[in-house]
Amino acid sequence: MSALPGEVLKQSFYDLNYADLEAVIKQNDLNQSVAGILFNWHYKKKESMQCRDNISKSSLAFFEKHFDFSLPEIDTVQESSKDRTVKFLFKLKDQHKVETVLIPFNNKYSICLSSQVGCAMNCSFCFTGEQGLKRNLTTSEMVGQFLQAWRWLASNRPGEERILNIVFMGQGEPLHNFDAVKKACEIFLSQRGTSIGVQKITISTAGYIPGLKRWLQEVPGVNLALSLHSPFTEKRNELIPINKKYPLAEVLNYIDAIPLQKKQFITYEYILIKGLNDTADDAKKLGALLQGKRAYINLIPFNAFPGSRYESPDLIEVENFKAILDTFRIPTLIRGTKGDDVLAACGQLNSKN
Ligand code: SAH
């Protein structure tokens, strides 16, 4: 990002977790109470710097001088006419664009955040993968997607500004941008701010082992979802090319080592693609692989996108697949396709245009 002449590039306030903010305050001899006040404004009340009652003029001036409080700009908003799904296209400072989706459930929302511009994983069924990786998102750009979506709800659907779940299932591979995603989680979790419960955050991965190695120590308690898509090596290699470097068996070893809370599961996502991974054999092998694990399977019928090479199976095939998994006693949900009329369903996010 290049600064305009005369412009000093400031650090974004929304890149700071609570400990970072306290450190800034200490280094600059400001009043310690400022950290709590700022987190309360920005993350609990979600107001901007306009609200300046209980903070000294000098502290305020310091933050205004040294920090950037801008958020990613909303470029377009598409509201589904079938359900209440909302898809946002955000414009970032360097003109790159990313998408975010609000998914409704009983007047509350889950938010699906993007973690990268594009993605390096190159999965053969994914629209985002076609873009390649442009760059990682910063923590503030992820936190900013949340805050802007919240503010949009507050002004467009007043009373509905309740975003209770956060899923990193938008564009990008979150574990490939571990540091920034981790810090965004720390901000969401902070009791001084949005105070999202740890079990309300889910990070989805294609099986990126360098990130899984850090999971236990660095994001304890956060939910994990693995995009599994095939228990067979050759098919998984075709669908998720990083399987050649990070094979499923090894990925599962890391995942099995994660201690789970009561009622906590690992989610295994399985896209069903007609004629490719939707047969009885696939279901049996998948069932055998996950039997006995604290597993929850999300079956996602493939969502088509412009130019996609695969097809979605018929509903009866999806139901047959689930019936086989039921015999293994693995809880399985057939995921609906909320928001597909605005290309907001899984794998339909692509913001290159
Ligand atoms: N990189 C992460 C998160 C992004 S994808 C991951 O791979 O998990 C989020 C979910 O959408 C994944 O389960 C992914 O496999 C699924 N998905 C991607 N493209 C899809 C498509 N065309 N149809 C249905 N689901 C898709």
Labels describing this entry:
single chain, 353 residues, alpha/beta, 10-stranded mixed beta sheet, two-stranded parallel sheet, 10 helices, 14 strands, binds S-adenosyl-L-homocysteine
Ordered list of secondary-structure elements with their pairings:
Layout: E1 11-12, H1 18-27, H2 33-45, H3 57-66, E2 67-68, E3 73-79, E4 86-91, E5 97-105, E6 108-112, E7 116-118, E8 133-136, H4 139-156, E9 163-168, H5 178-189, E10 201-205, H6 209-218, E11 223-227, H7 233-239, H8 248-256, E12 266-272, H9 280-290, E13 295-301, H10 315-327, E14 332-334
Bound molecules: S-adenosyl-L-homocysteine.
The site of S-adenosyl-L-homocysteine (SAH) has 16 residues, from strand 10 and strand 12.
SS summary, helix count: 10
Bound molecules: S-adenosyl-L-homocysteine
**What is the end-to-end distance?**
20 Å
Shape: globular
- Low-confidence spans: none
What does this structure look like?
It is a single chain. This protein has 353 residues and is α/β, with parallel strands linked by helices. The chain has helices spanning 18-27, 33-45, 57-66, 139-156, 178-189, 209-218, 233-239, 248-256, 280-290, 315-327, and strands at 11-12, 67-68, 73-79, 86-91, 97-105, 108-112, 116-118, 133-136, 163-168, 201-205, 223-227, 266-272, 295-301, 332-334. A 10-stranded mixed beta sheet has the order 3-4-5-6-9-10-11-12-13-14, with helices on one face. Strands 1-2 form a two-stranded parallel ribbon. A two-stranded antiparallel sheet has the order 7-8. α9 packs parallel to α10 (315-327). It is globular. The two termini are 20 Å apart. The relative contact order is 0.12. The mean pLDDT is 91. The structure holds S-adenosyl-L-homocysteine. Belongs to the radical SAM superfamily. RlmN family.
